[in-house]
Structure formats: structure tokens, C-alpha cells
From TrEMBL:
Residues 224-268 form the Flagellar basal-body/hook protein C-terminal domain. It is found in: Bacterial flagellum basal body. It holds the Pfam family Flg_bbr_C. The keyword Glycoprotein does not apply. This is Flagellar hook-basal body protein. It comes from Alkalihalophilus sp. As8PL.
Length: 274
């Protein structure tokens, strides 16, 4: 079997996966708070080829022929937690989370801030950057999918109606002037420990929950009511990368077709000689 056949096939699979990732990013270009996935192509480890003529090289090391490249693969997708642009909507239930300069973790990556969400019937805690909220029939502040937004006490926030206010630190006040509570803002020292679950929700992969950023003097943030954070997807750059992935897929496809034609000749023509 021709070795290049596997390399071309691996390239096609990697480019197809990259195209799917970029297509998903572009589809969410208008999703509030969406963080674009990013990944890179890496080569599989090369294999060292040596001669296997045991009769000629008895008692001695077989001579090295060289290295064999075994193809490429798409690395694990990781969200880009860069702050998105802020868009004014005028809706009181839209709240934008603006984070300041974040302290760097042990790996040299800056941390990130998130809303704390109660997802599911068993009260699982999830995290989000989508500030497009709404109010349910009972007067609680929720996501558009109906998940409760949690306060610093771990309880859902009951604001009553849309005439509530929130200050830059997350303190909520109902339309009648009663204090509702304080919105909990979670801090992830290493945001790469969060994985996407769909509908803008992120799950912390370690045990326990993320610590709160409220009261942490090293973390600065600001909440703005009537604004929403847009997706950080660069649509023009994403479309350019999609075209590059498509062309690379086609190039690998042509190589695969050339190997297929060579194998066809080897089977149907060379086999008839003699």
C-alpha cells in the first residue's frame, strides 16, 4: 500500500474537522457572549524506518532508512475567551460583563469571569458569558432557556419585573426599591478547564465550583445594564480560514485520487505482465 495514501486521508479528515469548527463559529457570530473555538493542525509523531534484512545484518544494528511522516490531526478545540464588543440594546434585562485586566494563572494565561447559572433540575452549577437574560413568570432573572441566574448566596435572583436596576458591582434593586441581592460573578484562574455544553453554558471540569470574584481586590470588573456582550467571532477572518481549509481539503483529495489511480494500474495492468 502506498504510504502517502494515509497522509492524504489524514489531511482530509483534519481539514473537514477544521471546517466544521469554523462553520460553527460563523453560525454563532451573532450569539451574545459566544466565544469562538480555536485549534491548530499538528503532525503525528514521525516513525523511524530501519532495514529488516536479518540475514545480511546478523548481530548488527539494521541500517536506518529515514523517517516516515504519518499525517496530521486537529488538536483539541479550545474557546478563545477574549472579551467581545459591547452593544447597547436598551433592554433592562440585558447585562454586559466587562472584565478588567485579569491576573495570570500558573500557566501564564489570564483568568476570565463568568455569570453563575443554575442548570437542570438537580441544581447543577454552570457558567456563561451570555448576558441576554429574561424574567420568568415568577419574577426570577433567567437565561433565555429558563436557567436561573444565581446570586452570591447561591440562590436565584427574584427581581419581580423588568423595572429592576443593577449597579456596576452587581447589586440588584427591585422596582419598589427593595434590595434583591448581588449577582455572583465567578472567576476562573484557568478558563481552559471549562468545556462547552451548548446554549452558551460552560461546565467546570474540576471538582467543586469556581470561586467568586466578588470582594477579590485583584480582580476588576464592571456590569452595565442595557448592554450585551457580542460574540468575539471575526466573521471576515473566519470566512478566509474556511476558504483555506476547503482548498487544503481539495488538494489532499486530488493526491488521494492520484494514489487511487496508481493502485488501479498496479492491480489491473502490472498484474497482467508475464
Amino acid at each position: 500500500m502506498l504510504r502517502g495514501l494515509y497522509g492524504a486521508a489524514a489531511g482530509m479528515i483534519a481539514q473537514q474537522q477544521r471546517q466544521e469548527m469554523l462553520t460553527n463559529n460563523l453560525a454563532n457570530a451573532n450569539t451574545p457572549g459566544y466565544k469562538a473555538d480555536q485549534a491548530s493542525l499538528r503532525a503525528f509523531p514521525n516513525m523511524l524506518i530501519s532495514a529488516l534484512d536479518t540475514e545480511t545484518h546478523k548481530g548488527a544494528s539494521a541500517p536506518t532508512i529515514g523517517e516516515l511522516t504519518t499525517g496530521v490531526y486537529l488538536q483539541e478545540r479550545m474557546p478563545n475567551f477574549r472579551q467581545g464588543d459591547i452593544n447597547e440594546t436598551g433592554n433592562s434585562t440585558d447585562i454586559a460583563l466587562l472584565q478588567g485586566v485579569m491576573p495570570e494563572g500558573e500557566l501564564g494565561r489570564p483568568g476570565a469571569l463568568f455569570y453563575t447559572i443554575q442548570a437542570g433540575n438537580e441544581g447543577e452549577v454552570r457558567y456563561s458569558r451570555n448576558g441576554n437574560f429574561t424574567i420568568d413568570g415568577a419574577g426570577f432573572l433567567t437565561t433565555t432557556e429558563g436557567h436561573y441566574l444565581l446570586g452570591t448566596n447561591g440562590q436565584p435572583l427574584e427581581v419581580g419585573d423588568e423595572n429592576f436596576t443593577i449597579d456596576e458591582n452587581g447589586l440588584l434593586t427591585a422596582s419598589n426599591g427593595d434590595a434583591v441581592g448581588q449577582m455572583n460573578i465567578a472567576y476562573a484562574e484557568d478558563p481552559m478547564l471549562l468545556v462547552k455544553e451548548g446554549n452558551g453554558l460552560l461546565r467546570f471540569t474540576e471538582e467543586g465550583e469556581l470561586p467568586t470574584a466578588i470582594g477579590n481586590a485583584d480582580i476588576s470588573f464592571q456590569l452595565q445594564q442595557g448592554f450585551v456582550e457580542r460574540s468575539n467571532v471575526d466573521a471576515s477572518q473566519t470566512m478566509t480560514e474556511m476558504m483555506n481549509a476547503y482548498r487544503s481539503f481539495e488538494a489532499n483529495q486530488r493526491i488521494l485520487q492520484a494514489y487511487d489511480q496508481s493502485l488501479e494500474k498496479a492491480v489491473n495492468e502490472v498484474g497482467r505482465i508475464g
